[in-house]
Amino acid sequence: MHDYHAHSVYSDGSNLRRMLDAATEAGLDGVGFADHCTLTRDPQWRRQRNRYARNFDRTYDRRRAVLSSLRADYDVDIYDAVEVDYEPGLEERIRSFLDEAGFDYALGSVHYVGEYSVFSFQDFSTPDTPSPEVMVADYYETVASLVESELFNVAAHVDVVEAHPQLTGLRTPDQIERVADAFTRSRTIPEVNAKRVGRSGGPDFHPSGDLLDALVDRGVPFTLGTDAHDPSEYDVRSNALSRFCAAHDLEVVSPFDVPPRRQSADERPQAAE
Ligand SMILES: [Zn+2]
Ligand SMILES: [Zn+2]
Q: Which of 93, 137, 263, 273 is at a distance of 20 to 30 A from 120, taking alpha carbons?
């Protein structure tokens, strides 16, 4: 099995050699390192970029050199990738960075919408924040834009808001359809993300429930991501991913197997009456 989503010290993960030792121990055949990169111009998220080392655009060449030398020591495929924060309006900046850097593949993620984070430390119960329903609607619209941007090989953890106790269960059938239809028309592949395995609250995997079903119904394939930040996470998450994919009979592809652009129902030639 190949895992296409892990983090190293070049963002908020662990030492590359320790990660690779653990990946080998877990029986993985390939590991992709996709460190965080925020290219935003927004002052609030610029501060986060500086505080939490989400400045991989400044350091990717150093990690690339380390990965090149480590390849000689490991019997696993090692991929040089990135996880970019997607933000509407930033497409050209993201595109030119990805063109310049030439990663093996790129993951795109929605970690914040406007000034609000999607993670559970963000409280949506105060009067100065949007209602949970509005936040969820904005989140899924942003995910659909990410998919339609065609910037990324992979869309990471596409329903991450389901892990937020104030946001879970609020999405509507229209929002699910909007996101699932965007994937059927795009070359971007959704990821089965195992970062919630073993944690309480929320689904074990993203995407979950009716969004997973909608993607499967439309014949959309998936890539796999442990989203490991620590070596100890590989074993349990990669085993859980294998079981989950087998149980749901998912079509698993690599980020390089870009599927042909599929047509939506309304683009297909209509049968003659
Ligand atoms: Zn992420
Ligand atoms: Zn990640």
A: 93
